[in-house]
Design a protein that fits this description.
The complex is a heterodimer of chains A (789) and B (281).
Chain A (H helix, E strand, L loop, with lengths): L1 E2 L18 H6 L15 E7 L5 E7 L1 H4 L4 E6 H5 L27 E2 L5 E7 L2 H8 L3 E6 L6 H5 L14 E10 L1 H6 L3 E13 L7 E7 L4 E6 L4 H12 L6 E4 L15 H13 L3 E4 L2 H7 L2 E13 L5 E11 L12 H9 L8 E9 L14 H19 L3 H8 L8 E2 L5 E2 L4 H12 L1 H13 L3 E13 L17 E7 L5 E5 L8 H13 L6 E5 L16 H28 L6 E4 L2 E4 L5 E4 H10 L12 E6 L7 E14 L4 E12 L6 H21 L28 E6 L17 H17 L14 H7 L4
Parallel strand pairs in A: 2-13, 11-12, 15-16, 21-22, 28-29
Antiparallel strand pairs in A: 1-22, 2-6, 3-5, 3-7, 4-6, 8-16, 9-14, 10-11, 10-13, 14-15, 17-18, 19-27, 20-21, 20-26, 23-24, 24-25, 27-28
Chain B lengths: L6 E4 L3 H11 L3 E4 L5 H6 L7 E4 L9 E4 L2 E5 L11 H6 L1 H6 L6 H6 L2 H7 L5 H8 L3 E5 L6 E5 H4 E3 L2 E2 L6 E8 L6 E7 L9 E7 L8 E5 L6 E2 L1 H9 L2 H11 L10 H20 L3
Parallel strand pairs in B: 1-3, 2-3
Antiparallel strand pairs in B: 4-5, 5-10, 6-7, 6-10, 8-9, 11-12, 12-13, 13-14
Classes of the chains: A alpha+beta (789), B alpha+beta (281).
Chain lengths: 789, 281
C-alpha cells in the first residue's frame, strides 16, 4: 500500500518520468516482506531434501527428530498424501503433453536433488534444521537423467519410469511455402546453438506463511508471489478448501521474474502443516534450496537454418530445438511454454516466405523447469539474429543492411505471420534507424577498423526482436488453466477527496503501482498525491491474473484507466446535480471540478465527497456510485507484440578470452510509454538479466544430476561493476485495442541481450575466423574457439 | 539455513584466547573478521560449539616497522592497508594487490591475517607473502613463546598451513623493500572481487629481472613460486620463462576452467607481469 507523492496538479501524469514513490520506503528498509511478518504463535518449517537426483525412499526414521527441542511436528510425504492433492501442469491446448503427478513432499520416490522428502515444524527455524538433520532416510538410488543429452539418448534412462519415455511435449509448426522458399535460396546457413540452464536468483527467496485459523476454518497465505488469485484457486483445490476459505496476501515482493508464478510443493506443504498444527507456519527458502528448488529455465539445444539469396533477401527459417525440463511439468503453467513460444515467434519479425519449427520438451531428473523472464525469447531471438549475422558475414553484407532489407515494414501491418501470430503494428525500421544514429554506427565501424590495426578486437552486435506482451485468454485460459487473463480495478472517491485504488495486479519491484497511480490520476483528474493503492490481497482487490508476461501496465493499466474514467463520470454527474449544472460542461482538473470552458472552479472533490457520504439526503433521490470497478481483457489480438532493437559494443582480449562490455543501446517500442523512467529501468534490468546467462550464469550438474554450483560463490550472477552503460530510446506504436495504448515492457532486454552480445562477440572474433554459439561465452570457450585452450 | 547454536567467547589477550581454546579444544574456533568462517557456519559446513572472538586482541594489531621489517598485525583489516604510508614505502606490492581483494564490504571486516591463516589457494595475500619473502609469527599452547615460519614453509596445501589447530597467527613480517623495487600484481577473475582464476604477485630489484620473485596463485593447492621459471627469466628471457612455466605448472581445474585453460592464462599473466616489472618504475 503506497501513497503516491506527486503534487504537480495540471501536467498529465501519464507519460511523465515519475520516480517510484515506494522506492523510498524500500530503500529506507521499511519494506514489509513475508519474512518481516511475525504472527503470534508462529512456527517455522525446515525441509529435508533429497540428496539424490532419483531415488526410491525405502524408509524414513524420525523418532529422534520428533524428540528434539522445540519440535512440533515431523511429516513425510505419506503423512500429507491424504490432505494435499497431487498436481501437474497439463494444459489441453498443448496437445499430447504428459506429466507424472507431483506431490508436495515426495512419496516413495524422489525425482530430483532438492525435492522435499520430509518436513520439520519447530518453534524456530534453527530448531527445525537441527531436527531435520537427525531424520534418517534410507534411499535406494535409481538411474538419473542428468542432462539434456542423457534425456535425448535413444534407449537411455527415463526420468519418470511410469511415463515410458522422456518426452513431455512436441510441436511442429509450418507456415508459408517452405519448399518454394528453399528452392530460391542461393545459400543456407546452418548453425547449432546452446542456451544454458539457469535460474532467476530473486533477491528475496521464495517465502510463505500459512496461517490456518481453526476458529473460522480459514487459511490466510502470506506469500511472496506474482499471482495471488491464482494461488488462492490452486491452494483451495489442492488443500480441499473452498475458494472463499483461502485468503492470499502478497506484501512487498523482492523480485520475481517469473520464478514466483508457480505452485511449489514446499510452499503448499507449509500451509498444510499450519492446518495440521493450528498455528501459523513460516517457510523462507534459503539460497541453497532456492538453487535446488526454484524453477530453472532455457537449457535448449538448437539446430537452425536460414535460407537467403545472395542479395541478402531472407527467404526461410527452420528451427529444431530440444529443452530439458525437470521431472514434472510445473503446475499450473506447465514446463513447455518456453519451447512453445519459440515456435510461435522465432524469426517472425522478418519477411519470411517459409517457416518450420519443431520443438520438444524432455523430462530429466534436474530441478523443475518453467517460465522465467522473457520465456522463450532469448532462444528465439538468439537463434534468429545469430543466423542473420552468420548469413550477412557469409555474403559479405553489413549486419545493419541485411536487417534493413528484411525486417517487417510499417506498411506490412497488420499481418499474420507464417507461424500464425497476428501482429497489429510495429516499427522495426524506425528502431533500426534510431539505434544506428544513437550509436553512431559508422564511427564505431571506423573505430573498430582502427583498433584492429593496434591488435585491439572490438565487436558490434545488433539484435532486432519482438516481445509477447498483454496476453489474452489464448495464453492459459484456452488450455483450461484457471489463470485469469483479465484484470480488474476498483477506484473509490474518499470523503476528503482522496482516491483509493484496489487492483488485481501487484508490485514486485517493477513500478506497477506507480503506473496505476499515474493512470488513475489522469483518468479522474487529480494529482498523483491523492491516489492510494491496495494490491496483493484477494480479500480486497478485484479478481485478476496478477503481474507476469508483461501484462501489468498494458492490461492492468487499462482496467485502471476505465475504472478511473467511470469514477470521473460519477463525480461529474454528482457535482452537476449539487450545483445544478450540465455535467457535460464540467471537468475535473487537479482535483478541482471546473467549468470546462472557463476553468472557473465549481467545487472540489472534498465537497463532493462530503455531500455524497454525509448529506446524500440533499440530493433529491440521486444515488451517487463513487466506488466503481472495471475489468479489462484483450480480445482482438492473442498478444500485443512489441518490437525493438538492441545493440552491443564489446572488446575481446584474445590472449585471455576475457570480454569487456563497452556499451549497450536499446530502442524499444512498447506502444504508449506511460512512464519513460520505468520503461528504461525495466530495459536496463532486463538487459542485465540477459547478460547473465550469456556470459556467466549456468546451473552446472554432473551426470548423476547433482548440482555443482548452488551458491552465490559458484553460480555467477552479473555484478554492477561489470555492467556497461546503457542508452535507451523509445518509439511509440500504441495498440489501438485499449484506450491507453500501452503494451508491455518487462522482458525485451532479456530477450534481446544474448543475441546482441553473441553477434558482437562473433564480429570481434571475425578476423580470427572464430565463431561461438554456445552460451555462456566463458573465457575458456572463447579461448577454445581461438585454438588457445 | 541458520547456523547451529554456539557459545560466543570474547578473549581479551592472546593468553586468554589460547586458554579458551585449550578449554574447548576441537569444539571451538577462533573468529576474527569472520568473512570466511561465518558463511561456513551459515551453511552448516562447520558446527563448532564455541567461537572464540579474537578481534580485540591488542597483540595482533597495528602496522609498524621494526629492524628493517614491515610488521603487519594479523587483525589488520584489508581496508586498513589502503593508503598506509609504511606499506606504501616498504611493501608497495601489497597495495598493487589490494584492489583485487574481494569487495569493499569484505575489505572493511576481513583481516590480513585471517586470509593468510585460511590459505585459500586463489587468495592474493598468501602469494604476496611468498613473493615478499615474508615470515609468519605464530603462537600456540605448546610452543615455547613464538614460532617464526617463513612463507615458503607456512603454506602446506589446500587450506593447510603451519598453524596447528590451537595456534594463532600473530603477525606477518616482511623485509622492507629497497626504494626502486619493481612490483606487479595481476589477476584474472570473471567478476571484480571474485577469487582469482589465476593470479601473479611479483617483485624484482630492477628491470634486469635477475632476481625476480614470481608467486602464482590459483594454479595449485597453495601459492607457488617456480625456481625454473625465475631462473629462465633471469638467464634467457620471458619466452623461456613461459615455456618453463608451461612445463612446471599443473593447475587443478575449477568449475569453469580446465587445467589447460588455467595453464594458458598463467602464461599470459607471466608475460604481462614481466612487462610490468620492466616498465617505468
Amino acid at each position: 500500500m503506497n501513497r503516491i507523492l506527486r503534487e504537480a496538479a495540471d501536467t498529465p501524469a501519464i507519460g511523465a518520468a515519475v520516480p517510484r514513490p515506494n522506492g523510498r520506503r524500500l530503500l529506507e528498509g521499511r519494506g514489509r516482506y513475508v519474512d518481516d511478518i511475525a504472527l503470534p504463535r508462529m512456527a517455522h518449517v525446515a525441509f529435508l531434501r533429497s540428496p539424490h537426483a532419483h531415488a526410491r525412499i525405502l524408509a524414513i526414521r524420525a523418532e529422534t527428530a520428533r524428540g528434539m527441542p522445540g519440535v512440533l511436528d515431523v511429516v513425510t510425504g505419506q503423512d500429507l498424501a491424504e490432505t494435499v492433492q497431487p498436481f501437474a501442469g497439463l494444459l489441453v491446448h498443448f496437445k499430447g503433453m504428459k506429466s507424472a503427478q507431483q506431490r508436495c513432499i515426495a512419496v516413495d520416490r524422489a525425482a530430483w536433488q532438492g525435492e522435499p522428502v520430509a518436513a520439520v515444524v519447530a518453534e524456530t527455524r534453527r530448531q527445525a534444521e537441527d531436527a531435520a538433520a537427525r531424520i534418517e532416510v534410507e534411499y535406494e538410488p535409481l538411474p538419473a537423467v542428468g542432462s539434456l543429452a542423457a534425456a535425448a539418448e535413444p534407449g537411455g534412462m527415463i526420468a519418470q519410469p511410469e511415463l515410458g519415455d522422456n518426452v513431455c511435449f512436441t510441436r511442429e509448426v509450418e507456415g508459408g511455402d517452405w519448399d518454394r522458399a528453399m528452392a530460391q535460396a542461393d545459400l543456407v546457413v546452418e548453425r547449432s546453438f546452446r542456451f544454458p540452464r539457469h535460474t532467476g536468483v530473486c533477491p528475496e527467496g521464495r517465502s510463505v506463511i500459512g496461517d490456518w485459523n481453526p476458529a473460522d476454518r480459514r487459511l490466510t497465505v502470506h506469500i511472496s508471489h506474482q499471482a495471488p488469485h491464482m494461488i488462492q484457486d490452486c491452494y483451495a483445490r489442492l488443500l480441499g478448501l473452498s475458494e472463499s476459505d483461502v485468503r492470499v496476501v502478497c506484501p512487498d515482493v523482492g523480485g520475481s521474474y517469473g520464478i514466483k508464478t508457480h505452485v511449489y510443493g514446499d510452499e503448499l506443504a507449509t500451509c498444510a502443516l499450519s492446518m495440521r498444527i493450528g498455528r501459523p507456519v513460516k517457510f523462507v527458502a534459503d539460497r541453497l534450496e532456492s538453487f535446488l528448488s526454484d524453477i530453472h529455465n532455457r537449457d535448449h539445444a538448437v539446430t537452425a537454418k536460414l535460407a537467403v539469396k545472395r542479395d541478402g533477401t531472407i527467404l526461410a527459417l527452420g528451427y529444431e530445438g530440444t529443452q530439458a525440463i525437470g521431472p514434472y511439468s510445473v503446475y499450473p503453467r506447465t514446463s513447455v511454454v518456453e519451447g512453445n513460444q519459440i515456435a510461435n515467434i522465432c524469426g517472425q519479425w522478418y519477411r519470411l516466405q517459409g517457416y518450420r519449427a519443431k520443438v520438444r520438451a524432455l523430462f530429466t531428473n534436474l530441478a523443475p523447469y518453467s517460465n522465467y523472464r522473457a520465456v522463450g525469447h532469448p532462444v528465439a531471438v538468439g537463434v534468429t539474429e545469430g543466423l542473420v549475422d552468420a548469413a550477412a558475414r557469409q555474403i559479405g553484407m553489413d549486419p545493419a543492411e541485411i536487417r534493413r532489407r528484411n525486417l517487417l515494414r510499417d506498411e506490412d501491418f497488420p499481418l499474420q505471420t507464417p507461424s500464425g501470430m497476428k501482429f497489429e503494428g510495429m516499427s522495426h525500421h524506425r528502431c533500426l534507424d534510431t539505434v544506428l544514429r544513437m550509436m553512431d554506427y559508422d564511427s564505431l565501424r571506423a573505430d573498430q577498423a582502427e583498433a584492429r590495426r593496434r591488435g585491439v578486437y572490438r565487436g558490434i552486435g545488433l539484435a532486432s526482436m519482438i516481445e509477447i506482451t498483454n496476453p489474452s485468454a489464448m495464453f492459459y485460459g484456452v488450455g483450461g488453466a484457471r489463470i485469469s487473463a483479465q484484470d480488474g480495478c476498483t477506484v473509490r472517491l474518499e470523503p476528503q477527496g482522496g482516491i483509493m485504488v484496489l487492483h488485481g495486479c501487484g508490485e514486485q519491484g517493477q513500478g506497477t503501482e506507480t503506473i496505476f497511480a499515474q493512470v488513475v490520476a489522469d483518468a479522474v483528474g487529480v494529482p498523483m498525491g491523492r491516489v492510494r493503492l491496495v494490491t496483493g490481497d484477494t480479500d480486497a482487490t478485484p479478481y485478476g491474473g496478477g503481474t507476469w508476461a508483461s501484462r501489468g501496465a498494458g492490461v492492468g493499466g487499462e482496467a485502471a484507466w476505465q475504472a478511473g474514467r467511470a469514477l470521473r463520470k460519477s463525480i461529474l454527474d454528482l457535482a452537476a446535480t449539487i450545483h445544478q449544472r450540465d455535467a457535460a460542461q464540467l471537468d475535473i482538473r487537479g482535483g478541482i471540478v471546473v467549468d470546462a470552458a472557463t476553468g472557473e472552479q465549481v467545487t472540489d472533490l472534498a465537497e463532493v465527497g462530503r455531500v455524497a457520504y454525509f448529506r446524500p439526503d440533499t440530493l433529491g433521490g440521486v444515488r451517487p456510485e463513487l466506488s466503481v470497478t472495471r475489468h479489462y481483457l484483450p480480445t482482438q489480438y492473442a498478444f500485443a507484440f512489441t518490437n525493438g532493437i538492441l545493440a552491443c559494443h564489446l572488446e575481446v582480449d584474445p590472449d585471455t578470452g576475457f570480454m569487456k562490455l563497452l556499451k549497450f543501446w536499446a530502442v524499444e517500442d512498447c506502444g504508449k510509454v506511460l512512464n519513460p523512467l520505468l520503461v528504461e529501468e525495466q530495459m536496463r534490468g532486463a538487459i542485465v538479466q540477459g547478460i547473465g546467462p550469456t556470459l556467466l550464469e549456468e546451473c552446472l550438474y554432473d551426470e548423476r544430476g547433482q548440482m555443482l554450483n548452488g551458491s552465490m560463490v559458484d553460480y555467477l550472477v552479473p555484478m554492477a561493476a561489470e555492467m556497461p552503460d546503457m542508452e535507451v530510446a523509445h518509439i511509440e506504436t500504441p495498440t489501438r485495442e485499449s484506450a491507453i495504448g500501452a503494451k508491455g515492457a518487462g522482458e525485451a532486454g532479456t530477450a534481446g541481450a544474448p543475441a546482441a552480445i553473441m553477434n558482437a562477440l562473433n564480429d570481434a572474433l571475425s578476423p580470427f575466423g572464430a565463431e561461438l554459439t554456445e552460451m555462456p561465452f566463458t573465457p575458456e570457450r572463447i579461448l577454445r574457439a581461438l585454438g588457445k585452450s | 539455513m541458520k547456523a547451529a547454536g554456539f557459545r560466543f567467547l570474547r578473549a581479551r589477550c592472546v593468553a586468554e584466547a589460547l586458554a579458551l581454546k585449550a578449554e574447548h579444544g576441537e569444539d571451538a574456533r577462533f573468529i576474527a573478521g569472520g568473512q570466511s568462517l561465518v558463511p561456513a557456519l551459515n551453511l552448516r559446513l562447520l558446527e563448532p560449539r564455541a567461537l572464540i572472538d579474537i578481534a580485540g586482541l591488542p597483540e595482533l594489531t597495528g602496522i609498524r616497522v621494526e629492524r628493517g621489517r614491515l610488521v603487519i598485525g594479523a587483525l589488520t583489516r584489508h581496508a586498513a592497508l589502503t593508503g598506509d604510508p609504511l606499506v606504501a614505502a616498504h611493501a608497495p606490492l601489497l597495495l598493487e594487490a589490494l584492489p583485487y581483494v574481494a569487495h569493499a564490504a569484505i575489505r572493511n571486516r576481513g583481516t590480513f591475517g585471517g586470509s593468510i591463516a585460511l590459505a585459500d589457494p586463489a587468495a592474493e595475500w598468501p602469494a604476496c607473502c611468498l613473493a615478499l619473502d615474508a615470515t609468519m609469527v605464530l603462537t600456540g599452547p605448546h610452543a615455547e613463546g613464538e614460532r617464526r615460519v617463513p612463507a615458503t614453509e607456512f603454506f602446506r596445501g589446500l587450506y593447510a598451513t603451519a598453524l596447528g589447530p590451537d595456534d594463532l597467527l600473530l603477525r606477518v613480517e616482511i623485509p622492507c623493500q629497497p626504494a626502486g623495487t619493481r612490483n606487479a600484481a595481476l589477476e584474472l577473475a570473471r567478476r571484480h572481487g571474485d577469487f582469482a582464476i589465476v593470479g601473479v604477485a611479483a617483485t624484482a630489484s630492477d628491470r634486469e629481472l635477475k632476481d625476480a620473485r614470481i608467486a602464482f596463485f590459483g594454479v595449485a593447492d597453495r601459492p607457488m613460486r617456480f625456481a625454473e621459471v625465475e631462473r629462465a627469466l633471469a638467464v634467457e628471457g620471458v619466452s623461456a620463462a613461459a615455456e618453463a612455466l608451461a612445463r612446471q605448472v599443473d593447475p587443478p581445474a575449477d568449475l569453469y576452467h580446465s587445467a589447460a585453460t588455467k595453464r594458458h592464462l598463467a602464461g599470459v599473466l607471466l608475460r604481462r607481469a614481466v612487462d610490468r616489472l620492466r616498465g617505468a618504475a
